[in-house]
Amino acid sequence: MGMLRNLWRARKLLLVILIPLLMLPLPVLYPDSPEAQCAYVLIVTAVYWVSEAVPLGAAAMVPAFLFPLFGVLKASEVASEYFKDTTLLLIGVICLAASIEKWNLHKRIALRMVMLAGAKPGMLVLGFMCCTVFLSMWLSNTSTTAMVMPIAEAVLQQLISTSLEADMDLAVIIDTDSVEDPYTASASPKYGGENEKRQLELIYLNENGMKKNRSDKEMLTLSDGQEPGQSGKEYSSKYKTKRDHMICKCLSLSITYAATIGGLMTITGTSTNLIFAEQFNTRYPESRSINFGTWFVFSFPIALIMLVLTWLWMHWLFLGCNFKETCSLSKKRKTKREEMSERRIHEEYEKLGPFSYPEMVTGIFFVLMTLLWFTREPGFVPGWTSLFERKGYRTDATVSIFLGFLLFLIPARRPSFSCFGKGRPDEESARDQKKPKDSNPLAPLINWKDFQKHMPWEIVILVGGGYALAAGCKVSGLSDWIGRQMEPMSNLPPWAVTLIACLLVSVVTEFASNPATITVFLPILSTLSETLQINPLYTLIPATMCVSFAVMLPVGNPPNAIVFSYGHCQIQDMVKAGFGVNVIGVVAVMLAITTWGFPLFQLQHFPAWVNATGGQ
């Protein structure tokens, strides 16, 4: 047993050593075949990625030394693949994200949206999902989940801690105001028996001074249809009732799913979108189909459909079908615990203080960056790039890196000019109390440490490794060889090929990282599309979106792990809920690509830019 235990501990090291040795006959038996040598590099890198035997960034460096050793690509050619236009786009976005998080603009947005939704369980879940979707459009899914979950946890703990006290206070309200209160038997016969029963039970608890916590929980759960003593076996002191537990499960899981949905909506929303955009533009430079505007127009309806259906699915799964009770916006139907939860959210918002100058500047940059992305090349009208004489020089990265650079220059303190008066120093000092004092009055909105803390260099290297693999497959001819092996699929209709690709990617990404999965599949699907004479966008866009649907296991992606760490849900909860979200996602993507995706990307034709570039 000790030997087996040691082998299991060293399994990753053994995999790192054995995989290159086991695959070594491939380049040895075919020394003059660039396809075999490239296949060796591809297999070794892919296994390292999928198994995570080494860090993803480290595995992405494998092509950097194996391609030159095998003579597939020159060292300078490989190096140029590791830093692309998309890297600059990501750097600019991270600068903005660092400013947003540093000055708590993201927290203000989240709390404000939750305040608008209210504390009814159904509306509370929908409110958190909406704010998570919006934030995840611009921040990474992991950062968004890590920011929203503490806020959600505070609200959940407030719901749980006030459960018993609020229900006991409700008995007094029912006893004294039964005529005016529409929540009582006289106003609603449907709830008469239940409220009368709860009233008698709670008055009994009051008279006996709340003898034991276990007795309290048993009495309160009787009205939910449970037997005495069942509550003590099923729940610890963490949850007072089954309803509390279901709300915690529903809200926490909904946040990670909403982060995934929000990441689909923009090119910069998640790393897989960036990988697709760069690989597509590198392989098909003559195509002008993919930019921030076209991607958003295509993905926004998908995200909207997924948001609504996911909320309905989660509500039905954990909260039941009583939407009238859980989603009512009427103040008369609010319970004491819901009012206290709303009060807690308002308190958290008030702690942020008034809207500060750094928040205002960051918000302006946020809106400005979005507008410049949308209006660069909208397609239906000339964009602002048409004002320049030379075309094709300016991309979304130009806007991103320019505005990101300005964030390092603009002072974080409001400039004071004597000719305009001194302003309101008391208000300004109150706003600055939350941040450490800086001796330099011209300190910028962000510094290099702020940027460095948020910059995901591992993703940058991982994306670069994917570009290097794609370049090696194209130069060596491996892509053409793979395409010839897939010719039997030519009898299938295009939608069937796309559906197979979506299902395959959705399964693989549950066990492998999302960036690694899309990096491996993009070159294969590109070659497959060219061989079958299908517009590559018909398969690449749905596969890119479906690779984000790793929502069934805690190891699927970092947001899943963050939510799972709070302890409200178990693996079977994630599998059950995630399976439904997966189905909703695949259906929504297939609906989009076969309807409004056709005129938007002209999918009915095999484009000329494939023959001019990718098909060579």
Write structural notes for this entry:
By secondary structure, the protein is mainly alpha-helical. It is built from 33 helices and no strands. α17 runs parallel beside α28 (514-531), α26 (478-485) packs across α28 and α28 runs antiparallel to α29 (536-546). The radius of gyration is 28 Å and the shape is globular.
Main traits of this protein?
mainly alpha; single chain; globular; 33 helices; 0% strand; 616 residues
Helix and strand arrangement:
Elements: H1 2-9, H2 11-22, H3 25-29, H4 34-51, H5 56-59, H6 62-70, H7 75-80, H8 85-102, H9 105-117, H10 121-136, H11 141-161, H12 163-176, H13 192-207, H14 213-222, H15 230-234, H16 242-263, H17 271-283, H18 292-319, H19 323-326, H20 336-351, H21 357-376, H22 396-407, H23 425-432, H24 448-454, H25 457-476, H26 478-485, H27 494-508, H28 514-531, H29 536-546, H30 558-564, H31 571-594, H32 597-601, H33 608-614
Helix pairs in contact: 2-4, 4-6, 4-25, 6-25, 8-22, 8-24, 9-10, 9-20, 10-11, 10-16, 10-18, 11-16, 11-20, 11-30, 12-13, 16-18, 16-30, 17-25, 17-28, 18-31, 21-22, 25-28, 26-28, 27-29, 27-31, 28-29, 29-31
